[in-house]
Amino acid sequence: MKIKPVIGKKVKVGRAEKGAGLGLFAEEQIKKGDYIIDYVGEIIPNAKCEDHPGKYLFEVDDHFTIDGAMRENIARYINHACKPNAEVEIDRGEIKIYAIKDIAKGEEINYDYGKEYFNEFIKPIGCKCTSCMKKIKTT
Ligand SMILES: [Zn+2]
Hints:
By secondary structure, this protein is mainly beta. The protein has a single domain, classed as Beta Complex (Beta-clip-like), CATH 2.170.270. It contains two helices and ten strands. The strands form three sheets. A four-stranded mixed sheet has the order 1-2-10-7, with no helix packed on it. The chain has a three-stranded antiparallel sheet with strand order 3-9-8, with no helix packed on it. A hairpin with a 2-residue loop joins strand 8 and strand 9. It is globular. The structure holds zinc ion (ZN).
């Protein structure tokens, strides 16, 4: 089963400023508290997660996980940041991303991926978010 992308704000995929890869950028001013986008994908029962390896698995609750690897899920381009401007809220089985700061047009959108993901995928290669890069520069 797949869900169509749900997008609340104008956003676009673009090249991330720091490091390699792509990111998701605001194409209009977003206010603190605004709903931005849903993280959508294939719904899989948690018991079957082992058959779905990958970086885009998002555990919704004790019962199921969303595999956001599909191309239509542009929320998957949102990068991790340790001091993010957005956050994830799980609402009745849907993964919704809200702004927790005002986000200017053209600014990259990011959220904190959480400890588990961080330790597994980010820590081994080093975090390249803006606040961590600043830390490296000043020390
Ligand atoms: Zn960081």
